[in-house]
DNA sequence: CTCTAAAATGTATCCGGTTACATGCAAACT
DNA sequence: AGTTTGCATGTAACCGGATACATTTTAGAG
């Protein structure tokens, strides 16, 4: 009793029946005592709780999941954890989930072949209560599988809703209008855009918003000012260099996300092109890094916390009231002006 | 048959028995057919696979977990996802896990009271195959619980091993020796250190290494040159300002991690203190950002991939061969010299 | 054509927590 | 005393996949 409360090695975790035996009651009583809620003598409950403590009993969630068909786990499909936008989102979302007694199952979408589909299948096997799809996938199959199973799903920027499928979209159009209006007011007319890989939804949405906003402000859209990066800094770096090779250089450039813009910023620095005098740079996301670089990055910021809350809320709503259709939510975008933008230098340029 | 292969809404996912019925065989046959391995006619297997496809059957992992007591899930306890060091690690680790058919269960350690303990309990309930503890927790209780359950665990920089408990440590001492040797060669004698919150293991280890290395190089340790931040940029920013208030300023400062150093870099920029002329700054981690700022950050870099591989390897080793003791692994640290370090300005200073 | 061995398939049970239903037992009322 | 009410507890079945063991089918040998 002194040195080894349990005999030898507790290889197998204690089960409820072990607790029941130890407490001299039945499993049902143990279960009820642990629920706290129901009808068990305080006395009995105490005995049970003591047995639980002594045996270090931890309930086996699989058994519960098996019975109820839900695991209190939420799958999150992330394209690239390295992107601060996603990791910042994940932190917020995880906090919400764990406050709700749910755990987060991480699934990567970058795995080679059929990555997303495999991830989705993994999540389905584990009977997740819901799924968050962070990049909007272009493939439809993973979505269909989720819908078929009626697993509450929320996607970011998919601009699509359906049964058990909600969407949380950023107001790109609004943000882009602000940003371009701001640049125009500063005197910019030659504004370029560095997107992500051309196919992806998010890049397309932001590019569309970019072009629409230019038109709205009466600025001509020039195809040579539209480039495609990769959502990472090196893509932004590369494409800014390409833009600088043009005879008629843009005076401002907008990145599809902050990493792209930060890459562009670095390229400008390396090329000894002054920011914002020779070129203004604007990002999109509002990651914490923006304020760590010099000049700090002007960006269209969107609250990660709000996105996370919206996603979690939408999932819960679909989960509890299994009433078919999902929701379409919009998240505001706010232009944050920092040091990477300013008036363009008035120097001789071909008037086009 | 045309418009609705399954009648009405497939509320409940198809089970193996559904597949068996549909294929006109028994559950055992279905199970074997899906294993592929065993003794089933190719013909039968085909019928089964067709039924699986038609019913969109996905096995229920909980049932398997219940039977075997292992879930093919690995818990990762992270202190702050926002720190690129952790998110970069997580990306690498997730890739390894998913290549091994495991999923990653995210657990945060920042949750208010008893955060880590609650997280650990959650993971135990889910019968994780292993746990990675990223920050070395100072509390012992969570560890004890894991050890009691014989869940393979690997911690970073805990410098402690035991039954079912491995450690992966960075070679701080080695890195610090390199860094300080390098700074000394440049002519620095007044070197400061900005740690994290004073109590935490990782800060303590690096501070100890810092002080030991200074001594080794015959440089006196000055207590006013040791400050405590918070592992984030704002802490580094704040503490660099404090250091600059000293009458006898240091000429170089080493951050406990890169975020701290980047914060210090920003503070120097804001204060119009030239880096590296007036102050050299060195970080620790080697995050991708280091190259995005200007001047780019000199740092003691450690391969996230190698850490992830070591962690995963150690877990697997403990899992398959349940042979008691864990391992102690060391990860090399490499000094990467960039623009934030250089010779100190030779100007009049109080000779102390 | 029969018998036997091997191959293919079926049946039933286990894993552990929950809960409908059954049982027990005491106080309260007729 | 007998009976009802109601609370406390026990018993057993269920969830779904795996598998030891039982049973059937098939093939090959005599």
Characterise this structure.
The structure is a homodimer of 352-residue chains. With 352 residues, chain A is an alpha/beta fold. Chain A has 3 domains: 44 residues, no CATH class; 129 residues, 3-Layer(aba) Sandwich (Rossmann fold), CATH 3.40.50; 130 residues, Rossmann fold, CATH 3.40.50.2300. Helix content of chain A is 42%, strand content 16%. In chain A, the strands form 2 sheets. Chain A has a 6-stranded parallel beta sheet, with helices on both faces. Chain A has a 6-stranded mixed beta sheet with strand order 7-6-8-9-10-12, with helices on both faces. Chain A is elongated. At the A-B interface, helix 4, helix 5, strand 2, helix 6 and helix 11 of A face helix 4, helix 5, strand 2, helix 6 and helix 11 of B. Strand 2 of chain A pairs antiparallel with strand 2 of chain B, so a sheet runs across the interface. The structure holds a DNA duplex (30 and 30 nucleotides).
List the helices and strands and how they pair.
The structure is a homodimer of 352-residue chains.
Chain A: H1 16-23, H2 27-35, H3 42-55, H4 61-68, E1 73-78, H5 84-99, E2 103-108, H6 115-125, E3 130-133, H7 141-148, E4 153-156, E5 165-170, H8 172-186, E6 191-195, H9 201-216, E7 226-228, H10 233-244, E8 252-255, H11 258-270, E9 280-285, E10 298-301, H12 304-320, E11 328-331, E12 334-336
Parallel strand pairs in A: 1-2, 1-3, 3-4, 4-5, 5-11, 6-7, 6-8, 8-9, 9-10
Antiparallel strand pairs in A: 10-12
Helix pairs in contact in A: 1-2, 1-3, 2-3, 5-12, 6-7, 8-9, 10-11
The structure holds a DNA duplex (30 and 30 nucleotides).
């Amino acid at each position: 009793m002194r040195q080894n409360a349990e005999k030898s090695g507790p290889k197998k975790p204690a089960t409820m029946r072990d607790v029941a035996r130890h407490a001299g009651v039945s499993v049902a009583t143990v279960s009820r005592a642990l629920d706290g809620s129901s009808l068990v003598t305080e006395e009995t409950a105490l005995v049970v709780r003591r047995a639980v403590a002594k045996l270090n009993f931890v309930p086996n969630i699989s058994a519960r999941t098996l019975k109820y068909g839900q695991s209190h786990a939420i799958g999150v499909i992330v394209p690239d954890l390295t992107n601060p936008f996603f990791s910042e989102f994940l932190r917020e979302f995880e906090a919400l989930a764990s406050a709700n007694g749910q755990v987060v199952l991480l699934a990567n979408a970058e795995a080679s072949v059929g990555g997303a589909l495999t991830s989705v299948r993994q999540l389905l096997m584990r009977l997740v209560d819901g799924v968050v799809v962070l990049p909007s996938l272009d493939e439809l199959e993973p979505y269909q599988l989720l819908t078929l199973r009626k697993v509450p799903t929320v996607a970011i920027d998919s601009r699509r809703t359906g049964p058990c499928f909600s969407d949380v979209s950023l107001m790109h159009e609004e943000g882009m209008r602000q940003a371009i209006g701001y640049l125009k007011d500063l005197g910019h007319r030659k504004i370029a855009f560095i997107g992500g890989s051309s196919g992806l939804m998010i890049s397309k949405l932001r590019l569309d918003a970019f072009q629409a906003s230019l038109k709205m402000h009466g600025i001509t859209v020039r195809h040579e000012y539209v480039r495609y990066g990769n959502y990472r800094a090196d893509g932004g770096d590369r494409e800014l260099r390409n833009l600088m090779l043009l005879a008629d250089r843009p005076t401002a450039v907008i990145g599809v996300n902050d990493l792209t813009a930060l890459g562009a910023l670095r390229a400008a620095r390396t090329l000894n092109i002054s920011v914002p005098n020779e070129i203004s740079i604007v990002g999109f996301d509002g990651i914490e890094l923006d304020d760590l670089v010099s000049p700090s990055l002007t960006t269209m910021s969107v609250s990660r916390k709000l996105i996370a809350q919206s996603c979690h809320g939408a999932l819960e709503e679909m989960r509890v009231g299994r009433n078919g259709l999902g929701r379409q939510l919009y998240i505001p975008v706010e232009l944050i002006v920092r040091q990477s933008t300013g008036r363009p230098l008035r120097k001789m340029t071909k008037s086009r």
